[in-house]
Amino acid sequence: MSTTTTRDLIVFGEDWGALPSSTQHLIQHLRKDRKVLWVNSIGLRQPSLNIKDIRRVVSKLFAKSQPVPPAPQLGSNHFQILHPKTLPAPRSIFARWISRLLLLAQLKPVISNMGLKSPVLWTSLPTAVDLSGYLDEHALVYYCGDDFGSLAGVDHETVSSREEELISKADLIFSVSQKLNARFPKTTSHLLPHGVDYPLFSTPTSRAPDFPDNGKPTAGFYGSISDWMDIPLLEKTIKQLPDWNFVFIGKSNIDVGCLEELDNTFFLGEKKHADLPSYSQHWTASLLPFKRNQQIDSCNPLKLREYLAVGKPIISTAFPSASEYQAYIHIIDNASSMVEALKDSVTDRDCYFRKQSVSNQTWEMRASSVSRWLNAL
After folding, report:
1. pLDDT digits over 311-345, tens only?
2. Who has the most CB within 10 Å: 14, 272, 300, 301?
Protein backbone atom coordinates (compact mmCIF):
# COMPACT_ATOMS: atom_id res chain seq x y z
CA MET A 1 0.00 0.00 0.00
CA SER A 2 1.34 3.46 -0.96
CA THR A 3 1.22 6.36 1.47
CA THR A 4 1.21 10.10 0.83
CA THR A 5 3.34 12.51 2.83
CA THR A 6 2.06 16.03 3.41
CA ARG A 7 5.30 17.96 3.51
CA ASP A 8 5.97 21.24 5.24
CA LEU A 9 6.86 24.37 3.26
CA ILE A 10 9.56 27.02 3.24
CA VAL A 11 8.12 29.87 1.14
CA PHE A 12 10.07 32.75 -0.37
CA GLY A 13 7.58 35.46 -1.31
CA GLU A 14 6.86 39.15 -0.92
CA ASP A 15 6.43 40.73 2.50
CA TRP A 16 3.52 39.10 4.28
CA GLY A 17 0.52 41.32 4.96
CA ALA A 18 -1.17 44.32 3.34
CA LEU A 19 -3.05 43.36 0.17
CA PRO A 20 -2.61 39.58 -0.15
CA SER A 21 -0.90 38.23 -3.24
CA SER A 22 -1.91 35.00 -4.96
CA THR A 23 0.92 33.25 -3.08
CA GLN A 24 -0.51 34.42 0.24
CA HIS A 25 -4.02 33.33 -0.71
CA LEU A 26 -2.74 29.82 -1.53
CA ILE A 27 -0.54 29.54 1.55
CA GLN A 28 -3.41 30.63 3.82
CA HIS A 29 -5.14 27.39 2.81
CA LEU A 30 -2.08 25.14 2.50
CA ARG A 31 -0.95 26.01 6.03
CA LYS A 32 -4.07 24.40 7.49
CA ASP A 33 -2.50 20.95 7.29
CA ARG A 34 1.24 21.62 7.09
CA LYS A 35 3.83 23.79 8.79
CA VAL A 36 4.95 26.86 6.85
CA LEU A 37 7.97 29.09 7.25
CA TRP A 38 7.31 32.25 5.23
CA VAL A 39 10.43 34.26 4.27
CA ASN A 40 9.69 37.90 3.51
CA SER A 41 11.08 39.43 0.32
CA ILE A 42 14.79 39.00 -0.33
CA GLY A 43 14.56 41.54 -3.13
CA LEU A 44 14.57 41.64 -6.92
CA ARG A 45 16.89 44.63 -7.25
CA GLN A 46 19.58 46.41 -5.29
CA PRO A 47 18.36 49.47 -3.37
CA SER A 48 19.02 52.99 -4.62
CA LEU A 49 19.97 56.06 -2.60
CA ASN A 50 16.47 57.49 -2.33
CA ILE A 51 14.15 58.03 0.63
CA LYS A 52 11.77 55.20 -0.28
CA ASP A 53 14.53 52.58 -0.59
CA ILE A 54 16.36 53.80 2.51
CA ARG A 55 13.18 53.53 4.59
CA ARG A 56 12.54 50.03 3.29
CA VAL A 57 16.12 48.92 4.10
CA VAL A 58 15.86 50.35 7.64
CA SER A 59 12.49 48.68 8.25
CA LYS A 60 13.90 45.33 7.14
CA LEU A 61 17.04 45.67 9.25
CA PHE A 62 14.99 46.18 12.42
CA ALA A 63 12.10 43.83 11.66
CA LYS A 64 11.77 40.78 13.87
CA SER A 65 10.68 37.29 12.93
CA GLN A 66 7.36 36.29 14.40
CA PRO A 67 4.86 33.46 14.69
CA VAL A 68 1.43 34.12 13.24
CA PRO A 69 -1.63 33.42 15.44
CA PRO A 70 -2.69 29.90 14.46
CA ALA A 71 -6.09 28.37 14.05
CA PRO A 72 -7.27 26.93 17.39
CA GLN A 73 -6.41 23.33 16.44
CA LEU A 74 -2.84 24.19 15.36
CA GLY A 75 0.27 24.69 17.45
CA SER A 76 1.81 28.12 17.95
CA ASN A 77 4.85 26.97 15.93
CA HIS A 78 2.77 26.05 12.89
CA PHE A 79 3.36 29.19 10.82
CA GLN A 80 6.18 31.69 11.17
CA ILE A 81 7.37 34.74 9.26
CA LEU A 82 11.08 35.42 8.89
CA HIS A 83 12.24 38.98 8.13
CA PRO A 84 15.59 38.23 6.47
CA LYS A 85 18.61 40.50 6.55
CA THR A 86 20.59 39.90 3.39
CA LEU A 87 22.00 41.40 0.21
CA PRO A 88 19.11 42.01 -2.20
CA ALA A 89 19.56 40.62 -5.74
CA PRO A 90 23.32 39.96 -5.44
CA ARG A 91 25.12 39.92 -8.80
CA SER A 92 28.66 38.56 -8.35
CA ILE A 93 29.54 35.03 -7.29
CA PHE A 94 31.06 36.40 -4.08
CA ALA A 95 27.99 38.52 -3.25
CA ARG A 96 25.72 35.51 -3.88
CA TRP A 97 27.89 33.43 -1.52
CA ILE A 98 27.73 36.08 1.21
CA SER A 99 23.97 36.45 0.77
CA ARG A 100 23.45 32.69 1.03
CA LEU A 101 25.55 32.47 4.21
CA LEU A 102 23.55 35.31 5.79
CA LEU A 103 20.24 33.68 4.92
CA LEU A 104 21.27 30.20 6.05
CA ALA A 105 22.43 31.59 9.41
CA GLN A 106 18.94 33.03 9.93
CA LEU A 107 16.92 30.19 8.41
CA LYS A 108 18.45 27.09 9.98
CA PRO A 109 17.67 27.92 13.64
CA VAL A 110 14.03 28.66 12.74
CA ILE A 111 13.79 25.47 10.66
CA SER A 112 15.15 23.48 13.59
CA ASN A 113 12.84 25.19 16.10
CA MET A 114 9.80 24.52 13.92
CA GLY A 115 10.80 20.90 13.37
CA LEU A 116 10.72 21.08 9.57
CA LYS A 117 11.94 17.79 8.08
CA SER A 118 12.72 17.58 4.35
CA PRO A 119 10.33 20.43 3.51
CA VAL A 120 9.34 21.61 0.05
CA LEU A 121 11.15 24.81 -0.93
CA TRP A 122 8.59 27.08 -2.64
CA THR A 123 9.70 30.33 -4.20
CA SER A 124 7.83 33.09 -5.98
CA LEU A 125 11.11 35.00 -6.40
CA PRO A 126 13.82 33.78 -8.81
CA THR A 127 16.58 35.17 -6.56
CA ALA A 128 15.82 32.48 -3.95
CA VAL A 129 17.34 29.83 -6.25
CA ASP A 130 20.64 30.42 -4.42
CA LEU A 131 19.20 28.55 -1.42
CA SER A 132 18.31 25.47 -3.46
CA GLY A 133 20.18 22.42 -2.17
CA TYR A 134 21.16 24.02 1.14
CA LEU A 135 18.00 23.51 3.21
CA ASP A 136 17.65 19.72 3.13
CA GLU A 137 14.57 20.25 0.99
CA HIS A 138 12.62 17.40 -0.54
CA ALA A 139 11.78 19.34 -3.72
CA LEU A 140 11.92 22.78 -5.32
CA VAL A 141 8.75 24.56 -6.52
CA TYR A 142 8.65 27.72 -8.61
CA TYR A 143 5.40 29.71 -8.49
CA CYS A 144 5.51 32.21 -11.34
CA GLY A 145 2.99 35.03 -11.08
CA ASP A 146 4.69 37.65 -13.24
CA ASP A 147 6.80 38.19 -16.33
CA PHE A 148 9.88 39.40 -14.48
CA GLY A 149 11.49 40.45 -17.75
CA SER A 150 8.94 43.24 -18.14
CA LEU A 151 8.18 43.99 -14.48
CA ALA A 152 9.06 47.49 -13.29
CA GLY A 153 11.44 47.90 -10.33
CA VAL A 154 13.39 44.72 -11.10
CA ASP A 155 17.07 44.14 -11.90
CA HIS A 156 16.14 42.42 -15.15
CA GLU A 157 19.55 40.99 -16.03
CA THR A 158 20.11 39.46 -12.59
CA VAL A 159 16.56 38.17 -12.15
CA SER A 160 16.35 36.69 -15.67
CA SER A 161 19.60 34.81 -15.09
CA ARG A 162 18.34 33.44 -11.74
CA GLU A 163 15.02 32.48 -13.29
CA GLU A 164 16.73 30.39 -15.99
CA GLU A 165 18.63 28.56 -13.26
CA LEU A 166 15.45 28.12 -11.22
CA ILE A 167 13.51 26.68 -14.16
CA SER A 168 16.25 24.11 -14.78
CA LYS A 169 16.28 23.03 -11.12
CA ALA A 170 12.56 23.13 -10.26
CA ASP A 171 10.72 19.87 -9.69
CA LEU A 172 7.38 21.62 -10.14
CA ILE A 173 6.41 24.94 -11.76
CA PHE A 174 3.08 26.74 -11.37
CA SER A 175 2.23 29.70 -13.61
CA VAL A 176 -0.80 31.95 -13.55
CA SER A 177 -1.34 32.49 -17.28
CA GLN A 178 -1.10 30.59 -20.56
CA LYS A 179 1.62 32.89 -21.86
CA LEU A 180 3.81 32.33 -18.80
CA ASN A 181 3.14 28.60 -18.82
CA ALA A 182 4.28 28.27 -22.44
CA ARG A 183 7.81 29.23 -21.37
CA PHE A 184 8.27 26.24 -19.08
CA PRO A 185 8.96 22.51 -19.63
CA LYS A 186 5.71 20.57 -20.05
CA THR A 187 7.00 17.78 -17.84
CA THR A 188 7.23 19.96 -14.73
CA SER A 189 4.74 22.82 -15.28
CA HIS A 190 1.06 23.31 -14.44
CA LEU A 191 -1.23 26.19 -15.35
CA LEU A 192 -2.63 27.56 -12.09
CA PRO A 193 -4.99 30.50 -12.70
CA HIS A 194 -5.87 32.75 -9.81
CA GLY A 195 -8.74 31.91 -7.51
CA VAL A 196 -11.11 34.20 -5.65
CA ASP A 197 -12.31 34.67 -2.09
CA TYR A 198 -15.86 34.10 -3.29
CA PRO A 199 -17.67 34.45 0.06
CA LEU A 200 -15.94 37.78 0.75
CA PHE A 201 -16.83 39.38 -2.57
CA SER A 202 -20.25 37.83 -3.22
CA THR A 203 -21.80 38.30 0.24
CA PRO A 204 -23.62 41.67 0.44
CA THR A 205 -22.00 44.26 2.68
CA SER A 206 -22.70 47.88 3.59
CA ARG A 207 -21.27 50.82 1.66
CA ALA A 208 -17.96 52.34 2.80
CA PRO A 209 -18.26 55.71 4.58
CA ASP A 210 -16.06 57.52 2.03
CA PHE A 211 -17.88 56.16 -1.02
CA PRO A 212 -19.27 59.11 -3.05
CA ASP A 213 -22.90 59.62 -2.04
CA ASN A 214 -24.27 62.04 -4.62
CA GLY A 215 -26.75 59.86 -6.48
CA LYS A 216 -24.62 59.58 -9.63
CA PRO A 217 -23.67 56.26 -11.29
CA THR A 218 -20.11 55.28 -10.37
CA ALA A 219 -17.31 53.49 -12.21
CA GLY A 220 -14.59 52.04 -9.98
CA PHE A 221 -11.11 50.54 -10.02
CA TYR A 222 -8.89 49.18 -7.27
CA GLY A 223 -5.28 48.07 -7.41
CA SER A 224 -1.89 49.58 -8.09
CA ILE A 225 -2.21 52.76 -10.15
CA SER A 226 0.90 52.27 -12.26
CA ASP A 227 2.34 52.45 -15.77
CA TRP A 228 0.02 49.74 -17.05
CA MET A 229 -3.01 52.01 -16.54
CA ASP A 230 -4.22 53.73 -19.72
CA ILE A 231 -4.49 57.25 -18.29
CA PRO A 232 -5.26 59.00 -21.62
CA LEU A 233 -8.16 56.56 -22.19
CA LEU A 234 -9.53 57.31 -18.72
CA GLU A 235 -9.14 61.07 -19.12
CA LYS A 236 -11.07 61.11 -22.41
CA THR A 237 -13.80 58.89 -20.96
CA ILE A 238 -14.23 60.82 -17.72
CA LYS A 239 -14.48 64.15 -19.54
CA GLN A 240 -17.33 62.74 -21.65
CA LEU A 241 -19.27 61.57 -18.58
CA PRO A 242 -19.52 64.52 -16.18
CA ASP A 243 -22.67 63.01 -14.66
CA TRP A 244 -20.69 59.94 -13.47
CA ASN A 245 -18.35 59.41 -10.51
CA PHE A 246 -15.00 57.69 -11.11
CA VAL A 247 -13.48 56.08 -8.01
CA PHE A 248 -9.87 54.88 -7.80
CA ILE A 249 -8.61 52.83 -4.85
CA GLY A 250 -4.93 52.08 -4.43
CA LYS A 251 -1.49 53.61 -4.32
CA SER A 252 -0.65 56.03 -7.14
CA ASN A 253 2.80 55.20 -8.52
CA ILE A 254 2.45 57.51 -11.53
CA ASP A 255 1.37 61.10 -12.17
CA VAL A 256 -2.45 61.19 -12.23
CA GLY A 257 -2.78 64.95 -11.96
CA CYS A 258 -4.79 65.15 -15.20
CA LEU A 259 -7.44 62.94 -13.55
CA GLU A 260 -7.31 64.44 -10.07
CA GLU A 261 -8.17 67.89 -11.42
CA LEU A 262 -11.47 66.60 -12.82
CA ASP A 263 -14.47 67.27 -10.56
CA ASN A 264 -15.97 63.79 -10.88
CA THR A 265 -12.90 61.73 -9.90
CA PHE A 266 -12.18 60.42 -6.39
CA PHE A 267 -8.80 58.97 -5.37
CA LEU A 268 -9.44 57.23 -2.05
CA GLY A 269 -5.99 55.76 -1.38
CA GLU A 270 -5.15 52.23 -0.26
CA LYS A 271 -7.75 50.06 1.49
CA LYS A 272 -7.65 46.72 3.28
CA HIS A 273 -8.46 43.72 1.12
CA ALA A 274 -11.39 42.79 3.34
CA ASP A 275 -12.90 46.26 2.81
CA LEU A 276 -12.85 46.20 -1.01
CA PRO A 277 -16.39 44.75 -1.38
CA SER A 278 -17.78 47.75 0.51
CA TYR A 279 -16.74 49.75 -2.55
CA SER A 280 -17.01 47.36 -5.51
CA GLN A 281 -20.48 46.10 -4.51
CA HIS A 282 -21.79 49.67 -4.54
CA TRP A 283 -20.42 51.11 -7.74
CA THR A 284 -22.23 50.72 -11.05
CA ALA A 285 -19.40 49.21 -13.10
CA SER A 286 -15.90 47.83 -12.51
CA LEU A 287 -12.97 49.01 -14.63
CA LEU A 288 -9.90 47.23 -16.04
CA PRO A 289 -8.34 50.03 -18.14
CA PHE A 290 -5.00 48.41 -19.02
CA LYS A 291 -2.50 49.31 -21.70
CA ARG A 292 -1.52 46.46 -24.00
CA ASN A 293 2.09 45.53 -23.26
CA GLN A 294 4.21 42.48 -22.44
CA GLN A 295 3.45 42.62 -18.73
CA ILE A 296 -0.33 42.82 -19.22
CA ASP A 297 -0.22 40.06 -21.86
CA SER A 298 1.31 37.75 -19.24
CA CYS A 299 -0.78 38.82 -16.25
CA ASN A 300 -3.83 37.24 -14.68
CA PRO A 301 -5.12 40.05 -12.44
CA LEU A 302 -6.58 39.01 -9.10
CA LYS A 303 -9.24 41.68 -9.38
CA LEU A 304 -10.80 40.13 -12.51
CA ARG A 305 -12.34 37.21 -10.62
CA GLU A 306 -13.08 39.43 -7.63
CA TYR A 307 -15.00 41.80 -9.90
CA LEU A 308 -16.91 38.83 -11.34
CA ALA A 309 -17.76 37.56 -7.84
CA VAL A 310 -19.23 40.98 -7.02
CA GLY A 311 -21.42 40.69 -10.11
CA LYS A 312 -21.26 44.28 -11.37
CA PRO A 313 -20.71 44.93 -15.10
CA ILE A 314 -17.02 44.94 -16.07
CA ILE A 315 -15.57 47.29 -18.68
CA SER A 316 -12.10 46.23 -19.79
CA THR A 317 -9.52 46.73 -22.48
CA ALA A 318 -8.48 43.49 -24.22
CA PHE A 319 -5.81 41.22 -22.72
CA PRO A 320 -5.32 37.44 -23.00
CA SER A 321 -6.49 36.37 -19.52
CA ALA A 322 -9.80 38.19 -20.03
CA SER A 323 -10.71 36.00 -23.01
CA GLU A 324 -11.90 33.17 -20.75
CA TYR A 325 -14.63 35.47 -19.44
CA GLN A 326 -15.38 37.48 -22.58
CA ALA A 327 -19.06 36.48 -22.34
CA TYR A 328 -19.26 38.39 -19.04
CA ILE A 329 -17.05 41.41 -19.84
CA HIS A 330 -17.53 44.47 -22.03
CA ILE A 331 -14.29 44.65 -24.07
CA ILE A 332 -13.54 48.17 -25.28
CA ASP A 333 -10.71 49.67 -27.34
CA ASN A 334 -11.22 53.44 -27.16
CA ALA A 335 -12.93 56.16 -25.15
CA SER A 336 -16.09 56.15 -27.28
CA SER A 337 -16.69 52.43 -26.75
CA MET A 338 -15.90 52.80 -23.06
CA VAL A 339 -18.46 55.59 -22.71
CA GLU A 340 -21.12 53.48 -24.46
CA ALA A 341 -20.31 50.42 -22.31
CA LEU A 342 -20.62 52.47 -19.14
CA LYS A 343 -23.97 53.90 -20.23
CA ASP A 344 -25.22 50.38 -21.01
CA SER A 345 -24.06 49.13 -17.61
CA VAL A 346 -26.73 51.20 -15.85
CA THR A 347 -29.42 48.80 -17.09
CA ASP A 348 -27.29 45.63 -17.04
CA ARG A 349 -29.01 42.76 -15.20
CA ASP A 350 -26.52 39.88 -15.65
CA CYS A 351 -25.23 39.94 -12.05
CA TYR A 352 -26.14 36.30 -11.36
CA PHE A 353 -24.30 34.91 -14.38
CA ARG A 354 -21.12 36.85 -13.64
CA LYS A 355 -21.11 35.56 -10.08
CA GLN A 356 -21.73 31.98 -11.18
CA SER A 357 -18.82 32.11 -13.64
CA VAL A 358 -16.34 32.08 -10.72
CA SER A 359 -18.33 30.44 -7.91
CA ASN A 360 -16.33 27.21 -8.33
CA GLN A 361 -12.92 28.92 -8.63
CA THR A 362 -12.19 29.68 -5.01
CA TRP A 363 -8.71 29.85 -3.51
CA GLU A 364 -9.62 26.81 -1.43
CA MET A 365 -10.20 24.78 -4.61
CA ARG A 366 -6.96 26.08 -6.17
CA ALA A 367 -5.05 25.16 -3.00
CA SER A 368 -6.57 21.68 -3.05
CA SER A 369 -5.13 21.11 -6.53
CA VAL A 370 -1.75 22.46 -5.43
CA SER A 371 -1.77 20.17 -2.40
CA ARG A 372 -2.32 17.11 -4.62
CA TRP A 373 0.57 18.12 -6.89
CA LEU A 374 2.82 18.73 -3.91
CA ASN A 375 1.96 15.41 -2.33
CA ALA A 376 2.71 13.62 -5.61
CA LEU A 377 6.29 14.90 -5.68
Report:
1. 999 999 999 999 999 999 999 999 999 999 999 99
2. 300
Domain assignment of residue 4, yes or no: no
Cα angle, residue 226 at apex, residues 20 and 129 outer, rounded to 5°:
55
Burial class (CB in 10 A: 0-12, 13-18, 19+), 102: middle
Position 157 confidence tier, pLDDT thresholds 50, 70, 90:
confident
Domain with 75 in it: what CATH number? 3.40.50.2000
pLDDT at residue 52, as a whole number:
42
Contact between 289 and 218 under an 8 Å Cβ cutoff? The reply is no
Output the CA torsion 301→303→308→312 (10° steps). -130
Q: Which domain holds residue 175?
A: 9-195+362-375
Distant-in-sequence, close-in-space partners of 231: CB < 8 Å, separation ≥ 6: 254, 256, 258, 259
Strands of the chain, DSSP E: 9-12, 36-39, 66-67, 79-82, 120-123, 139-144, 172-175, 189-191, 218-222, 245-249, 265-269, 285-288, 314-317, 330-332
Lowest-confidence pick of 5-19, 100-114, 265-279: 5-19
pLDDT at position 280 is 98
Number of domains in the chain: 2
